[in-house]
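Hi, here's the filled form for the chain we discussed.

Project: internal
Contact: R.S.
Residues: 167
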Amino acid sequence: MAAPSGRSGRRLWAALVPVAILCLAARAAEEASTAEFDVRPGGEVHSFSRSLGDYTCTFTYSAQGGTNEQWQMHVGVSEDNPLFSCSVWRPQGKSYLFFTQFKAEVKGAKIEYAMAYSQAAVGGQSDIPLKQEEFEITETTVSHREGKFRFELSKLMIVAKTPRDEL
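And the returned structure, exactly as it came back:
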């Protein structure tokens, strides 16, 4: 299949590539783990981590308002180990907490693709991504951008490339 051409085609292609990477990572996952955790309001900084082999994903946040919300973290490593994925989300779709900060960090791999969402897809609704200026991506972290983040977070997705051993 050839890549779409033209300006709108490039935008479509740019949108499809990350989705394809995530699908391949999910399908090829030899090892995977999903865990539930509570996101707690109160303004204190909390962290939740999951490790799989040599790779770790840590979600650190501070939130205000409401009561505890049940969230999930999924980590996976593709069959031949080139990709490590980490997803953090609220299964009910939208969080009603006000996040004052967030950061997801991966150890043992470098981020290839990441996205943050104000609302996760549920009940026929689509994911609603944060605006690009609301968060920043480095080699190992995805975090809120001070002064730009609008306090809404419901989902984070990261695909990171693992180091390859050369023979």
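Let me know if anything looks off before we file it.
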